[in-house]
Description:
CATH class of the largest domain: Alpha Beta
Helix content: 25-40%
CATH superfamily of the largest domain: HUPs
Strand order of the largest sheet: 5-4-1-2-3-8-7-6-9-10
Structural class: alpha/beta
Low-confidence stretches: none
Shape: globular
Mean pLDDT: 94
Order of helices and strands: EEEHEHEEHEHEHEEHHHHHH
Amino acid sequence: MKIQDLELEKKDKGRRARVTVVWEDCDQPDKEIFIETPDPLGSSLKADANAFVTGCIIPALHFGERRIAVDGTVCPFLMEGLAAVMALMRVWTRQRYKPLAIEPAAILKSADNDGEPGRHAAMFYSGGIDSIAALWRNMAQYPKSHPARVRDCFFVHGFDIGGVPARGMKYHVFDRGVAAMERVAAAAGVNTIAVYTNIRHLCDDRELWLNRFFGAVLAAVAHGFSSRVNLFYIASSYDFDNLGPCGSHPMLDPEYSSYALRIRHRDADLSRLDKLRMVTRWKPGFDNFRVCLANVEDRLNCGRCEKCVRTMTGLVALGALHKTRAFVQDDVVPEMFDAFKINIRHREPFYLELLPLLRQQGRFDLVETIERKLAEK
């Protein structure tokens, strides 16, 4: 693989950093990939080779490329981390992924002048339970004057929204998510920055995306803004008790750091129920979270898909579903589970932790439904 034609294009209000990806050892078509923001706050976006080598490493391994030749300067601290990423991927794929060579045009010799004065902490914000709990906990743990206190929240198009071209780019859904995010960010006193990227389109395989890839793309976006930010938080998907191969992982995300940009995988000490309980205590987040991937007009969450029903069931277990405006439903009934499976892609832990509380609430109808669905083949 060659990463070439590294360029920064100025837009009316924002910028686009772009490269051309040329495949050498497979029959994938050449593709322009980019990181873009229309936001004036995104004026610090730069054409950073670190961003694109990070975003390309997993697809290059997946398609059997023997090297990544990078037309740009790469930090040796990042290269060391990518070696660890490749070793972990080799283990996770049972030797199918073979480590490749990274060949930058130049190695960064000093980080003294990398970035600008006043760089600060930021986080990725999807609008889901993980990211809202991460923001709330960060505010609770760090005073406003602390350098680890979040100042920016980045909402990225090209993940669950716009990530699969065949399903449409859904810009209107993204805009609705940005509006909800801005309400939460205003309450938290942080900036919101909308970002667009198509790095996921290098390989649209869903299992690859979920199990190995999406954390690398988050890290790629982070590197694009390293002149503004020196610490990026990625909210955990699973807690330590239930870890498995995942695109974002405490053994994976920090290895995407450069010397000038730290990436931290946070809150893996908390279960999903712990996080949901946190969110219920913060009204702006509780009324504006978005767990749903569906496009439902005038609503953030459809209330019918697996993610919605799972989250609603958790709120029933906490006695809190009727207290949020994020769902129009005030209750969950067993029939809501008929449309989907709940025992795929390591979702079982999310349901098992709900059972004791549901029993305490006297919701044996939901307990029996969950136990039956978990036992399905």
